[in-house]
Write the structure tokens for this entry.
Amino acid sequence: MREPATKKAIKKFILHLHPLKIDKRAIAFNRTFGLGGIAALLFTILFITGMMLKFVYIPSAGQAHDSILSLKNDIIFGNLLRNLHYWSAMLLVVVAFLHLVRVFYSQSLFYERRKNWLYGLLLMFLVVSANFTGYLLPWDQLSFWAVTIMTNLLSYIPLFGEGLADLIRDGDTVGETTLLRFYHFHTGLLPLLMVFFMAIHFWLVRKAGGVALPKIEKSKKVDTHPHLTYKEAFVALIIIMALLLFSIFVDAPLLEKAKPTVSPNPSKAPWYFMGFQELLMHVHPVFGSFIIPLAVTVFFIAIPFIKYQEIEPGAWFHSKKGRKMTIASAVFSAIFTFAFAIINDAVFDFSNRLAEWPSLISTGVLPTLLYLAPVTAFLYYFKIKHKANRPELMIGAVTIILSAYITMMLTGSLLRGEGMQLIF
Amino acid sequence: MKKLKINRRKFFKRFLYSLVTLQFVYILFRLFKPQKEAADIEKFYDAGDVSFFQKGKMYPFGSEQFYLHRLTDGGFLALSSRCTHLGCTVQFNANNKRLECPCHASAFNTNGEVLSPPATRALDYYPVVFKNNRVLVDVNHPVRRNKHDNSQVKYV
């Protein structure tokens, strides 16, 4: 009678994560899309494949690239292992982002979930940092220059930017010691921190009573096992299958060994930072690398702490009006941001036209205000004309920020060719 | 908001915790802080004999990532080939007599001054000294500068 014992063990273990009985609405797939769970699964896959890769990889400028070539060519399933790690990491950034978006739009960040929203933001930062530090490790032309560009973007932060970039790189250029540093961040410190904060994140979900749901009079509860656990296993299997298949057919990119004397044309930051690089092409570095990112971060932290008259935790987009606003804001922001980027360069051209002004004003304050004016007008229109309340306006504002970043990211990654010129 | 109450015991407890945390942060900071070597003439890069360099020409030193420019008046200027915009490696275009960055199309003249943006700062330069008629370049200590001025050019 081995099976019942195993079953019991599984059941008992799972009950550390889930309650015994669960609201039927909480386990409907389109309530959470399983995104948090998928992120945790991807972390596990990354942990396991990463542990295996550590046995082959040599973190030195001379041997890193060769060790990856030998992994690809000489070791059985070595290439698959690397692909699996690479694509899981890329998927994790996407899934973690979607998870954040889901939590926001389903309004699951207020009251008892406030603190967990902050831990979530911290985890998002750790996911991106882990991805970015891993990006350098193959030590090929792509990774070397992407990290060079990204660390130099940091050095534009006023006052401490230069010191921060030197601290991350261990010197003023990307080199042998940078690789060692990134290797240990990637395989030691960051996973450790992530495990720690993930535990808190899960615990706070349970403490808040699970997934946020709109209040109804009578809710129907079902047993967690098998109703939720089978669903979880099903999604996990699909993700693992899809990742495996994708990794069999699509290779992770690997260019020639890094050459510090030859920059490829164009050189780009990793794709998820391209919105940031695109922003820096249009506004003054102090704004692009410091004031605007800081403002956005503070705004995201502040969302659940602002005073609202009416909040509906668990209600998608707050209301029907909120849903309409989301679509309108996303379309408006995508078109406006793209148009503004082009008009700012082609028509305004402040850096040349107002050459005698201080550049902080002509390319920093002025474009920022010119961008913010129509955005404010757009939100104000919704407030007056459609009587949007504060949570709905907040949804509009967040949508504008997210849509603008995605637009810039896509412009920078897909529409810029040689010399970072637009291609069309 | 609860009223914050601090008595002596609490105060010392927090004070000690903060001290320990600060120490830990400081140790971490020192661990990560890049080591700055002092200028040591033994570690300077020997670029060659003074008489070898013709006036008004640029000499690339790819492995050390600098260009040695001998000005028409005989002065020496060792320019870093790191673009001041985002750190790509600039290439010398002999036809236009300018250094061009392949990444975002910044351009610099032979003294490292910006000819076209997005770069805003002149190229860094390395200190040059002369010893026994040889040109020695301190390749470990690039000097940041906003503008080029003649005091940065060294004469034999």
